[in-house]
Amino acid sequence: MAFNRSVDVVVIGGGFAGITAARDLQKSGLTTLVLEARDRLGGRTWHKEVNGFAVELGGTWIHWTQPFVWAEKERYGLEIQETPGCAAERIAIKTGDQVHDLREDQLAEFVDGFHQFFAASKAVWELPYDSRHTREAIVECDAQTVADRMNALELTPLQRTAVGGMLEILSMNQPENASYVEMMRCWSLTGWNYELFNDTAARYKFTNGTGALVSAIAEDGAFEVALNTSVSSVQHSATGVSVTTVNGEVVTAKRAVVTVPLNVLNSVSFDPPLSTVKQEASQLKHVGGGYKVFFEVEGDPGAVMTLSRSTDSPLIGSFTYKRGEQHSVLAGFSLEPGALEKPLSEWQTVLEEFMPGVRLLSTFGHDWGDDALSNGSWCTYRPGCFGRFADELPRHEGHLYFASGDTTEGWRGFIEGAISSGSKAAVAVAHSLAS
Ligand SMILES: Cc1cc2nc3c(=O)[nH]c(=O)nc-3n(C[C@H](O)[C@H](O)[C@H](O)COP(=O)(O)OP(=O)(O)OC[C@H]3O[C@@H](n4cnc5c(N)ncnc54)[C@H](O)[C@@H]3O)c2cc1C
After folding, report:
1. 93, 158 contact by CB (below 8 A)
2. Which of 169, 207, 282, 394 could cross-link 79 (Cys pair, CB 3.0–4.6 Å)?
């Protein structure tokens, strides 16, 4: 990669936000260079073969409630497949210290818990892609946590586990730290409907992995990429942008699109500095922590879903991910520190509670929290932050434009959000250069 060079637009970060912006910019006739610190594109999505299984170590599931990513799937003709455990034959649920199968006659009670929890969300998020439409109502609830909302309701033990467990997965944090308005946003985005909410979370994934979409965008866009290129500082002025890498190379450009994840944005130094709200948000961080843990088990456990709260089990939820006669894989979620290092024998005991007779062969995953280029999993804002962050984090500053799944309108925290923010940033940059 030749450096100390000049392009129309430099894109910092090659996750879905960055590569979507780069494709659209290059296609609009602007020379575009992506600088990516990792040795691969895709960022917090990572389709990889581990233990003989092709798995998604990061972002996985997409749905037609997510218009930008669904359009990409259609555009490139990419196949999807169902995740067996999302349309489960059996849901094993732990309430207190008891695990039992969810019975047919308990389904209405289960779903009703969500309707009670989210009763206000239609009024609060009438248009979830346009938070300004009901800004006052959103800000009014902004300080409330998921725990606050749950405590205000008289939920049954089953409903407390169903709602509590699902929202621990959705926020990747405990109810005391998770934002009520952020959870309502996702419920509104799925049409205030439990089935769509559940299916959007974990039903459809790319048959050939998220990597197939990364490759399709990169090939179609034909933009230039420099991998293993970490940006350390960015200078910007009325005349343009100058980006310096940790190795001292310099790229100058008319515009920059910054897609560095919120939790590590402060690791890049900006001159002049970013707005105080952007700096504060990066320091405060979003709440998405936890671990996605894959469980390789002997034989075929069937299409199973498990659900619990983190106070009752290290495994807050899991789904059969891939079925095989010899061995199968479940994708699970945990908030327990060190979950990826937890000994197999301990996980065996945990899993056996939900699936008697199961034989665990291995566990694996990627520690996104310990990864210096993400410092967390997926984003939901902390309680009390929405009002300050919603407009300010995606706002451009001079010739710096911002795109990220962490700061977008609509599906913030998802592949969808990354793609939508990347395409919107590309339009804004092209427009600024045309005028
Ligand atoms: C475990 C896990 C499971 C998830 N599950 C789902 C799911 O099922 N469905 C879904 O829709 N979403 C899911 N997500 C969320 C989704 O993956 C992300 O929201 C989305 O991929 C973010 O894209 P992005 O481009 O905004 O950020 P990223 O993908 O993080 O891209 C930012 C890029 O910037 C690079 N970078 C950082 N610092 C620098 C620097 N200084 N210089 C150069 N490059 C730098 C990073 O290496 C990275 O490649 C999941 C995420 C995780 C971690």
Report:
1. yes
2. 207
Q: Is residue 39 scored above 90 in pLDDT?
A: yes
What is the CATH architecture of 106-193? Alpha-Beta Complex (3.90)
100-127: pLDDT as tens digits: 999 999 999 999 999 999 999 999 999 9
Residue 251 — very low, low, confident or very high, per pLDDT cuts 50/70/90?
Answer: very high
pLDDT at 3: 65
Using most ligand atoms within 8 A of CB, pick from 11, 371, 378 the residue to mutate for ligand 1.
378
CATH 3.50.50.60 residue spans of the chain: 5-45+209-286+373-434
User: CA–CA separation, 379 vs 287, rounded Å?
Assistant: 7
Q: State the distance from the centre of ligand 1 to the C-alpha of 15, rounded, in angstroms.
A: 6
Ligand 1: distance of its center to the CA of 357 in Å? Answer: 36
Q: How confident is the model at residue 51 (pLDDT cuts 50, 70, 90)?
A: confident
Distance 96 CA to ligand 1 centre (A): 34
Angstrom distance (rounded) from CA 105 to CA 96: 20
